Amino acid sequence: MRTIYVVGIGTGSPKHVTIEAIEALNRADVLFIPDKGAQKSELADVRREIIARYVTKPDARQIGYAVPRRNAANPDYGQGVNDWHDALADIFSVLIADVPTGGAGAFLVWGDPGLYDSTLRILERVSIPVRIEVIPGITAIQALTAAHGIALNRIGEPVTITTGRQLGPVQIDSVVMLDGQLAFLEADPNLQIFWGAYLGTADQLLVSGRLGDVAQDIVATRNAARERHGWIMDTYLLRQPQ
Ligand SMILES: C[S@@+](CC[C@H](N)C(=O)[O-])C[C@H]1O[C@@H](n2cnc3c(N)ncnc32)[C@H](O)[C@@H]1O
What we know:
- The protein has 242 residues and is α/β, with parallel strands linked by helices.
- The chain has helices spanning 19-25, 41-54, 77-97, 119-123, 140-148, 211-229, and strands spanning 2-8, 30-35, 61-66, 104-109, 130-135, 160-163, 174-177, 192-197, 205-210, 234-239.
- It folds into two domains: 2-138, 3-Layer(aba) Sandwich (Cobalt-precorrin-4 Transmethylase, domain 1); 141-239, Tetrapyrrole methylase, C-terminal domain (Methyltransferase, Cobalt-precorrin-4 Transmethylase, Domain 2, 2-Layer Sandwich), CATH 3.30.950.
- A five-stranded parallel sheet has the order 3-2-4-1-5, sandwiched between helices. Strands 6-7-10-8-9 form a five-stranded mixed sheet, with helices on both faces.
- It is globular and about 60 Å long.
- S-adenosylmethionine binds at residues 11-12, 110-112, 115-117, 139-140, 177-178, 196-200, 233-235.
- Pathway: Cofactor biosynthesis; adenosylcobalamin biosynthesis.
C-alpha cells in the first residue's frame, strides 16, 4: 500500500504552510506539482518555492504534470466535470505508480483540500489502492477575512459559501469564490463588499466598502491586475448592511 498526502499549502504565501504540512511533505518520496500552463506558471512556482524552503529529505523527487483543461463548451456542466475528473484520475494513476510500494507521495493543494478542490474526489477514482491522509491548509476565505481584519460571520449569524455561477439574491452573508463573471455586479448595491485578490501574496489587492460605491473600482482593479499577471484569483464577502 502507498500513502498519499493531500497537503493544503495555503493561498500563495510560503508562510501559510503549517508545521503539519512540512512534516508530511518530508515524509513523501515523490512530490507532485500541477502545471496549468505558462500563464499560470506562478502557481507552480509557489509550490516549488515551498519545496525548496521546507523539504529537506535528500532523495525526494518532484514530478510535474500538465493539468488538462475542462471542456467548458460541454452544455452539460456535470458531465463536463465528470469527464475532466476521469482524465485527471488517469493521470493520477500514472503518477502514483511512480511512488515506491510502501512509500508515500504528496499532492500540494492550493488553500485547503476540502474547499472547492477536487483532488480528494479524483483520488477516489484512481486504479491503484492508496491510503489517503489530508493535511488542512489556510483557505482563501481565511486569507480574505484576515487581510481585511474582519470576522467571517456576524454574531450568531450564518454564512453561505458559493460560486459566482450560483450567486443569487443575497439573503445570507455570502463568500463568493470562482467568480469569472463578476456576479457582484448584479447584487444589491447596499451590501457591503470585502474583496481580495492574490491573497497572501506580495501582490495582494484589497477593496472594501458599500458595493454600489466600489463595484466599478473592483472591476477596474481586477481588469488591470489580470492584464498584468495573465491570471487572477479573487474572493469576496457580501455582507448585509448593519
Ligand atoms: C479552485 S478554488 C480553490 C480554493 C482553495 N482550495 C482554498 O481553500 O481557498 C479557486 C478559487 O479560490 C479562490 N482563491 C484561491 N486562492 C486565492 C488567492 N490567493 N486570493 C484570492 N482568492 C483565491 C478564488 O475564488 C479562486 O477562484
